[in-house]
């Protein structure tokens, strides 16, 4: 240790400094070691060994030496064997042992044997920490003991049947938690969370042994004591009922479920996505081409599978179409249905009953009248001419010409029975027709599908 003096008009500084060499006796130096043997297994017990040693050159000074062990989550001290130590009562998760006797240099106190139970909430890998203080050592000494835990491997699955329907009430999901690992579960609490998409609303959730709570329409939590589920076993399934928004579809939504709560060997399979297709209450699916090319005068045919929901009930569904091409006729094999089935839609381009006229309206009738008048007038003329000339030639000629005119009027010279009239076909072109299926339930929107007819 060095001291220095200065000031006061000092003129001789050579004697202003003094040194005092001091020998420091070494203090005790503690060391703590913590160990275990093998892996611990969930649902069973394991033992830690804690040893405190004086590694310094001096013995401890007789002040209290304390060892503190704060056990990892999922472990509880159930027994302690520590000769000469005064330890906490068990069960406990914080073990403290102390003593005040002197420990000679390079010697150890009797070990602390700490037995712990391992429950299902423990992680697959933990680190136990012990701290030793006191005995004249000014520093706290720490020991770390990484521990591998044999834990189960939970997986979760979520399923549903078929497609959900817009407006459906009580659609069902089934959630199952299974142990796919090599070790049984061993206590703790299993927790399942389900996060529904916005178009679905949870209405009920239940399962044997499960306690389920609905937090708002889109989140469900179910818990169950983990108990003992052997490898390959499963917990009872959870049934989740949901209502489907009436404004949804067609769309695919994603439902997410996850399992947590206990130690798990493989967290990668603790979540599952269930992709769910939502369809309208009425759907029309073409089973034949929706574009058909035909020659004028022939028919185009379209086939559909029409699916009607029962929840919500689609009721009676009527079919209509618009527009109808010029000079064509549209028809269905059934204009209404009350259950799912097939429907055929036909567009006939043969004129729809229209024919082309070869003469103006009323032409045949007036031709016959004109022939009759001509017959009478020419007959009278022929008779007078025959009397005036005293010749039968005019009478015979008049009778022949009048008869011929009358005969022509009746056999079709005037258009009555000539060649048949020409049919009127749908003009060539491309025609898009919208087929509409309308429910008797006014809350259900109609379903539509466009078809195209190309007339050559």
How would you characterize this protein structure?
The protein is mainly β. The protein contains two helices and 31 strands. The strands form seven sheets. A six-stranded mixed β-sheet has the order 4-12-11-6-9-8, with no helix packed on it. The protein has a six-stranded mixed β-sheet with strand order 14-22-21-16-19-18, with no helix packed on it. Strands 24-31-30-26-28 form a five-stranded mixed β-sheet, with no helix packed on it. Strand 11 and strand 12 form a beta hairpin. The longest helix has 27 residues. It starts with a strand and ends with a strand. About 4% of the residues have low confidence.
Characteristics:
456 residues; six-stranded mixed β-sheet; mainly beta; 2 helices; single chain; elongated
| Arrangement of strands in the largest sheet | 4-12-11-6-9-8
Number of helices: 2
Low-confidence blocks of residues:
355-367, 412-417
**Ends: how far apart?**
117 Å
* DSSP strand tally: 31
State mean pLDDT (0 to 100 scale): 88
Largest sheet: 6 strands, mixed
What overall form do the CA principal axes indicate?
elongated
**Helical residues, percent:** 10-25%
Structural class: mainly beta
Gyration radius (Cα, Å) is: 52 Å
Strand content bin = over 45%
